[in-house]
Design goal:
There is one protein chain. Helix 1 runs antiparallel to helix 2 and helix 5 packs parallel to helix 6. By secondary structure, this protein is an alpha+beta fold. It is built from seven helices and 15 strands. Strands 4-3-5-6-7-8-9-10 form an eight-stranded mixed β-sheet, sandwiched between helices. Strands 12-11-13-15-14 form a five-stranded mixed β-sheet, with helices on both faces. Strands 1-2 form a two-stranded antiparallel sheet. It binds D-MYO-inositol-1-phosphate.
């Protein structure tokens, strides 16, 4: 099987699984939030829907590909000895989910030997969906589009990010971790950034933020302290839309920084984040 076909097959499995999980979460939310427990801090929450959706995703991936490893936000690592690892966030934007703010998504990415090759993010309430395969571009599915022979899943629109080239008029998305000391540092970075950009947006789901950046609905995105499951799929989608997706100072995207910006904004935003010591907010390892 060619690499391209394998990537496409992994993406299709991710898409079908994300749709099923999204439907489960949507149906559960309609009946109320259910049980809420806390994780790393009292503001970091997990709900029964997070757990049920992750279980469903793991069981579908396991049934289709029993030898793959799965790294899930809520259940940790399921062992596997193939070269494929799945990164699963059943609800990215759990706080929005709890408050009934309709902005949270399922995120599933597949890596081969550590390289992200396929990913999907689905907005659970609106049904909007973004997907990408490595080298195959980033695409937005329109839930309202009628199915056709060319696009059985609804119209697929290829994404190419924002055309804004001046950081001073760029709308920059970001997010904050759950630990108070990290938030204090992240707040200080935002204070330095605000006078130098058009404005800041904090929507509450890094996965959806990266898709919005891929679509050009925001001009760029950065966040310190994200986990692999938060940015695995969205990072690939942004990169395939033509954005540069990295850490700072030559590092790859990771817990220390995920910066996603179109080439024209990348340099100025990168340098400003360095100047503001943004990486100092990274979790200590
Ligand atoms: C969170 C969201 C949020 C980001 C946090 C993440 P979760 O993920 O992506 O936007 O700012 O850093 O932890 O907890 O809702 O899966």
């Amino acid at each position: 099987m060619s690499g391209r076909t394998q990537r496409w097959e992994l993406c299709e499995l991710a898409v079908q699984t994300a749709r099923e999980a999204a439907e489960l979460v949507r149906a559960q939310r309609a009946g109320g939030v259910g049980q809420v427990a806390t994780k790393s801090t009292e503001t970091d929450v997990v709900t029964s829907a997070d757990r049920a959706a992750e279980q469903l995703i793991a069981s579908r991936l396991r049934a289709a590909r029993p030898n793959d490893r799965i790294l899930g936000e809520e259940s940790g690592t399921h062992a596997g000895d193939s070269s494929v690892t799945w990164l699963v966030d059943p609800i990215d934007g759990t706080v929005n989910y709890v408050y009934g703010l309709g902005h949270y998504g399922v995120s599933i990415a597949a890596q081969i030997d550590g390289v992200t090759v396929a990913g999907v993010v689905r907005d659970i309430e609106s049904g909007a969906e973004w997907r990408a395969t490595l080298g195959g571009g980033a695409w937005r599915t329109d839930p309202a589009a009628p199915p056709s022979a060319d696009a059985p899943d609804g119209a697929l629109r290829r994404l190419s990010g924002s055309r804004v080239a001046d950081l001073g008029v760029a709308l920059v998305g970001t997010g904050f971790g759950y630990r108070p000391e990290q938030r204090a540092r992240q707040g200080a970075v935002v204070a330095g950034l605000l006078p130098r950009v058009r404005d800041i947006r904090r929507f509450g789901s890094a996965a959806l933020d990266l898709c919005n950046a891929a679509e050009g609905l925001i001009d760029a995105f950065y966040e310190v302290g994200l986990n692999a499951w938060d940015f695995g799929a969205g990072g690939l989608i942004a990169a395939e839309a033509g954005l540069r997706v990295t850490g700072l100072a030559g590092e790859p995207a990771g817990a220390a920084m995920v910066l996603a910006a179109p080439p024209a904004l990348y340099g100025p935003l990168h340098d400003l984040l360095v100047e503001l010591h943004a990486a100092a907010a990274a979790p200590r390892t």
